[in-house]
Amino acid sequence: MNINLTLIGQSITFGLFVWFCMKYVWPPITGALEARRKQIADGLAAAERGQHEQELAEKRAAEHIKEAKGQASDIVAQAQKRASEIIEEAKNDAKTEAERIVTGANAEIEQEVNRAREQLRQEVVSLAIAGAEKVLKREVDKEAHASALNDLATQL
Amino acid sequence: MAEQALTASGYIKHHLQNLTFGKIPEGYEHAGSWGFAHSAQEAKDMGFMAIHVDTMFWSILLGVIFLFIFRKAAKYATEGVPGGLQNFVEWVVEFIDSSVRGSFTAKNPIVAPMALTLFIWILLMNLMDLVPVDWLPQLAGLTGSALFGVDPHHVYFRVVPTTDPNATFGMSLAVFALTLFYGIKIKGIGGFMAELTMQPFESKSMVGKILFLPINFFLEFVGLISKPISLSLRLFGNLYAGEMIFILIALLFSSGIGLGIFAGMLQWAWAVFHILIVMLQAFIFMTLAVVYMEMAHHAH
């Protein structure tokens, strides 16, 4: 229980220990702790950022889909319109074609009729002439009455 | 209780005597040369120029163990996943750091490492109290007699440095010196002296100030001096008393089977309770040292 040099020895020892601790023990450990704290904070921030980005991407994707849907319905509508137009055109074409055919046929029929009429007239004329010849063979001179007969033929 | 002829008081005194190395005083064998004291009286007669080898040995050994382990952890400290040792060391460091932050608001890089050193070092020194009181002294006695041919009776060995007032005063005086240094450094000589002389009794007039000066100085000086004394005596007293109780319990071992078993139970119970004291005293010493540093940094 005597107070002696041990007192001073203890003070010096204590001072040396504190110095060593301050120099070589405390800073690396607190440094590592601080660095880890920062790392964790950074990680959390990155995670949050990632989540935020994902939300944004989802929103963007939804917008894209909406747009695409709109475009698709536009295209379908256009196609339908085009299809009905084509049908309409085809109908018109068919109608004119039919009319043309009908007119052609009508003209041909008329021609045919005219030709038949002409032929018929010729035949009637020749028949009439033949009949008249037979009748007049005896009374009418062919040459003398030719002009009169021609007039008759034209009137037919 | 190996010493057959020893009385109870002799046993206790033997346990409370440090292994003292110093200049052997007049009236003893080899007077004038340096050597170990062979009796309590001889150690006392050596005066101030002597050293307690056991106290120094154990305190330095424990301090080196503490710094070795912590340095090892600090050297390989990684910010990634910490290993077992680093985990433990970080836990201790964070505990110290948070309790220092709680009571110390200024910025001083010495305070937290000082607190860590104080806490762990004192804790380790205190924990030596839990080693059964006779083991290490007996070992030292056997070593002394076998290697140096000394009567084991004269080999003194105390294994708990904090039961040596030299150790506790050594630490508290070092802390006191730090508080004085930073107090003067931060407040200046004038501010420091003003704190000693201008309060608690304050006066506006010059005459009043001078009138109050002696009483203020007396009060503040007592307050100042009482800090290191109370700091070291608290630790010393608690550990000394704890050790004394262990010694008294150990005395019972020689009093027959029944009392021996009872003493064993008592020793166990006291050791369990003592763990609390050991921790608490280390923590109190550390906290008060930090508080004193805080007071040195702030005028009040």
Strands, helices and their partners?
The complex is a heterodimer of chains A (156) and B (300).
Chain A: H1 6-136, H2 146-155
Chain B: H1 8-15, E1 20-23, E2 34-36, H2 40-45, E3 50-52, H3 53-75, H4 84-103, H5 111-127, H6 135-148, H7 165-197, H8 206-252, H9 257-297
Helix pairs in contact in B: 1-8, 3-5, 4-5, 5-9, 7-8, 7-9, 8-9
Task: Walk me through the structure.
The complex is a heterodimer of chains A (156) and B (300). Chain A is mostly helical. Chain A has helices at 6-136, 146-155. The N and C termini of chain A lie far apart (175 Å). Chain B has helices at residues 8-15, 40-45, 53-75, 84-103, 111-127, 135-148, 165-197, 206-252, 257-297, and strands at residues 20-23, 34-36, 50-52. The N and C termini of chain B lie far apart (55 Å). Residues 1-5 of chain B have low confidence and may be disordered.
Tell me the fraction of residues in β-strands of chain B, as a range.
Answer: under 5%
What general form of chain A does the structure show? rod-shaped
Structural class of chain A: mainly alpha
Query: What Rg of chain B, in angstroms, do the CA atoms define?
Result: 23 Å
Q: Please state how the strands of the largest beta sheet of chain B are arranged side by side.
A: 2-1-3
Summarize the structure.
The complex is a heterodimer of chains A (156) and B (300). Chain A has two helices and no strands.
Attribute tags:
heterodimer, A: 156 residues, mainly alpha, 90% helix, rod-shaped, B: 300 residues, 3-stranded antiparallel β-sheet, 3 strands, 70% helix, disordered N terminus
